[in-house]
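Need residues for this backbone.
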């Protein structure tokens, strides 16, 4: 894989910490557009861009998470020269976890903190959306409330969208969680109050893999609160990153503006 899987928006020269952001199924780096401006120049936002979308729209998508993680590993290593935090929403949360495991296996610098949003832990993720009929998958997407009805009702558009979604769903639905020790890094769990895809009780079970994760933080909204509660989510991210500035700010616990 020669194409870049990471999009850096801002100038990293002043950044004290890098925030790597990973997308939900069918999403791309544009999900996190504008986060850089809102979080300020001391946080560098680096968004993952998967093949089949965005600037990589002509590349073949991944179907297996282990292959994607291998290529993430190759490209992220030069970017681990300062403290970093991983954020992932839905499918992106599993990418964060799997990538952190791989980095630990290879003796690389690990993220200081994981923020896992709107995703069941691996042992509870049993649904097989990637193998559904097109009709059943479209109805499932309608229930998720993340795809505009005009897209779902347009056969030509869905002909383009469904293969990419099947690939992305396959990433998590074929993932076999390795039998490894829990991760000791800090962790924050985030859920939507009306998210039928990942209940707060299900989110809590990530503590099996991340014992330092506390009680999930609940934001109002369904599975796509990453958009509908954006301001609240960004405030949560700021709070999660505060400890990693304590040695670099004149006053610990506050973040500078851009």
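Answer:
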């Amino acid at each position: 894989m020669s194409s870049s899987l990471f999009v850096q928006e801002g100038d990293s020269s002043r950044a004290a910490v890098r925030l790597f952001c990973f997308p939900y199924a069918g999403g791309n780096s544009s999900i996190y557009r504008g986060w850089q401006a809102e979080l300020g120049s001391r946080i560098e936002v680096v968004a993952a861009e998967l093949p089949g979308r965005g600037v990589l729209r002509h590349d073949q998508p991944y179907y297996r998470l282990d292959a994607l993680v291998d290529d993430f590993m190759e490209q992220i290593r030069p970017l681990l020269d300062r403290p970093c935090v991983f954020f992932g929403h839905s499918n992106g949360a599993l990418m964060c976890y799997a990538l952190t495991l791989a980095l630990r296996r290879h003796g690389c610098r690990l993220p200081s903190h994981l923020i896992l949003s709107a995703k069941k832990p691996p042992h509870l993720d049993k649904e097989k959306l990637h193998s559904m009929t097109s009709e059943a998958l479209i109805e499932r997407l309608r229930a998720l409330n993340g795809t505009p009805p005009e897209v779902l009702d347009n056969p030509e558009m869905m002909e383009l969208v469904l293969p990419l979604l099947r690939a992305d769903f396959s990433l998590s639905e074929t993932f076999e969680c390795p039998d490894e020790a829990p991760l000791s890094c800090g962790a924050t769990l985030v859920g939507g109050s009306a998210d039928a895809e990942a209940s707060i009780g299900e989110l809590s079970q990530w503590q099996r893999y991340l014992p330092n994760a506390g009680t999930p933080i609940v934001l109002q909204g369904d599975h796509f609160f990453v958009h509908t509660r954006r301001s609240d989510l960004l405030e949560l991210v700021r709070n999660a990153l505060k400890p990693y500035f304590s040695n670099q700010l004149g006053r610990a616990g506050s973040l500078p503006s851009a």
